[in-house]
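Researcher: Next sequence.
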Amino acid sequence: MKIRLIASSIAAGLLLAPVAGQAQDFPSKPIHLVVPFSAGGTTDTLARIMADEMAKSLGVTFVVENKPGASGVIGLTAVAHAAADGYTIGLASPGSTSIATAMGKDLPYDVLKDFTFVSPVAYYDNALVVSADFPVNSVQELIKYSKEHPGKLTYGGSSIGSSTHLQGEMLKRATGLDMEHVAFKGGGEQIQALVGGHIKIGVIGLSATTNFIKEGQLRALAVLNTQRAAAVPDVPAITEEVPGYDPSMNWYGMVAPKGIPQEAIDRLNAAIQDAVRNAEAAEKASARGIELFGGSPKDLADLVAKEVAGMKEAVDIAGIRQQ
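Model: Next structure:
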């Protein structure tokens, strides 16, 4: 009996050995990083910073794929439905997770069940900006202008239910601003419309606008945070202009399809921690209004679960529903 048990154990070990060897070989080919928004925006900027650094740590090429639409849902759907091998990952944010769930969207994935949470990645700032020829220089002047021109103003944001849309609607409620939302697929398209004069006001990721602000093509009225951003230190935080307004809802996390190998989770998480601790990467991100930070898979899972539970109130306040 003992001989058979030993033989069975050896046989089982031999059967398992190739599988373990395969897991330890991760990664052995290019990794696809899905960006659920168009090129040129905050998400795209962050993805390319992370892809460059993670490629160095893991020794493989990263292929950045922009799959915009539906506040990030199209891109995250591609991640959820990809092979569970660790070679497709994506950047998740509130618009495609907690906000979409709170809005009651009929999502093609369950936010809490259909992803592997790999790591938190960053916080970022949105900004309230206007085109250079628009005759306002502060939030209070914008409020005054909107009251003098009722029903005339629009503001650009990302698609329905994105953080820019939700922040814009909450800002309207807090200040009495009279302006209607115009949806764009991402920051790149929104920048073109603002700089081209097609829209005059935007709520947009700061990273997409920093250079345009510094070059005078756009004017930033406020950073939608409780403190000023290092990238544009002369621009006031929105809480300086509108006391009591809560702008917080901006984060990114790296996710993968449900069920990827533990070895892939561990190696991807380790590469993310290397990236967010890299001084050069952190400086690049900070200059664009993005603050890198890391953590464990559980940290991201807990963050998403907490936001899914708490975001419904913000959606109700803003009056946003599935459209």
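Model: DSSP finds twelve helices and eleven strands in the chain. The mean pLDDT is 87.
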